[in-house]
Design goal:
The protein is an all-alpha fold. The protein has 12 helices and no strands. It has helices at residues 2-28, 38-67, 71-79, 88-111, 118-138, 149-160, 169-178, 182-217, 220-225, 228-265, 267-272, 281-295. It is globular and about 75 Å long. The two termini are 41 Å apart. The relative contact order is 0.11.
């Protein structure tokens, strides 16, 4: 409960409170009729007052608590898991744009190989390395592309990390996460919180930008005259884009740490399942697919066979 409260405060309440205060202040300050100056700022602060600040805070907290269970769906929305229907063409356009970026990165690997001269070779090597990193960390296989950069970064982790051990991250990671050392688990959870905060900030700043922009658009003549308010609205759009970019970086960093965790601690899942310790990489590639199949099977009518250890003391001593 304590962890949930801290997560709610950081992930839910803070972004919602910030966006709500900005929108309310924008409205009560007289925008866009009144010029953006010290008088407008004073007017807004006085209009909100202490009682207004309390009510805004209460409302933001109530909204954040209500929406917190939807955080996973919010991240999925930013990943590009959109429904069909009228959204399908937009999703198709997004995938086409991401495929274009992917193919440009692939082409950059080949184009720069023929560069001549030391300086050009250094530049070519740098471009080649950047393209290779982008393909490795930001894109899944071409057939698995999603319409957003965040979705492709997270899917890249799902598809590629653990592949050399036969590990399906989507299936096995939630179980391995529970048996990790507490310090490591807390560090990974902090990374997820950072990702969630960035996603929530991106959406709340976006909503605030839409509301403020719509408010300004209702009185274009006053907006043109007092263009300082347009700068605030533009800043909200920029903050939303920056938060989204931060979410992508957080997703990539989290994926890299998941990869390292699988390299060093994948045996903990085998131990927790009371299976004999694997002694070779080929045994890893045999056992982990079996576990993935077991965890995705919801029927007792299957032919999966796993040999358990007699006790936890036998772990690491062979079969």
């Amino acid at each position: 409960m304590k962890d949930f409260g801290a997560r709610l405060q950081v992930v839910g309440i803070l972004p919602t409170l910030l966006a709500t205060f900005v929108v309310v202040f924008f409205v009560v300050s007289g925008a866009p009729v009144a010029p953006l100056d010290a008088i407008a700022l004073k007017t807004g602060a006085e209009a909100i007052g202490l009682a207004g600040a309390v009510w805004i805070t209460v409302g933001a907290v109530a909204l954040a608590v209500t929406l917190q269970p939807l955080q996973f769906r919010l991240v999925q929305l930013l990943e590009g898991y959109w429904p069909g229907g009228i959204v399908a063409p937009v999703r198709a356009l997004g995938i086409a744009w991401q495929r274009r970026k992917y193919l440009r990165a692939v082409a950059r690997l080949a184009i720069v190989k023929g560069s001549k001269g030391k300086l050009r070779q250094l530049v070519a090597a740098s471009l080649r390395e950047a393209a290779a990193h982008q393909i490795r960390a930001r894109f899944p296989d071409e057939s698995r592309l999603l319409p957003t950069a965040l979705g492709n970064t997270l899917r890249c982790t799902e598809d590629k990390v653990g592949r050399r051990y036969g590990i399906q991250v989507v299936t096995l990671w939630p179980r391995l996460h529970l048996v990790l050392p507490p310090a490591l688990r807390d560090e990974l959870d902090d990374e997820v919180n950072q990702l969630d905060v960035s996603c929530r900030l991106s959406v709340t700043w976006l909503l605030a930008a839409v509301i403020c922009t719509s408010f300004l658009a209702s009185n274009l003549s006053a907006t043109i005259l007092n263009w300082g308010w347009a700068l605030i609205a533009a800043s909200l759009w920029a903050l939303s884009a920056l938060a989204y970019r931060s979410a992508i970086e957080a997703a990539e960093a989290h994926g890299q740490d998941i990869e390292v965790t699988l390299d060093l601690h994948r045996h903990l899942l085998i131990e927790a399942m009371r299976l004999p310790a694997t002694r070779t990489l080929s045994e890893d590639r045999r056992v982990f697919p079996l576990l993935s199949k077991l965890f995705t099977t919801y029927s007792s009518q299957h032919d999966l066979q796993l040999e358990y250890r007699e006790s936890s003391k036998q772990f690491g001593t062979g079969r």
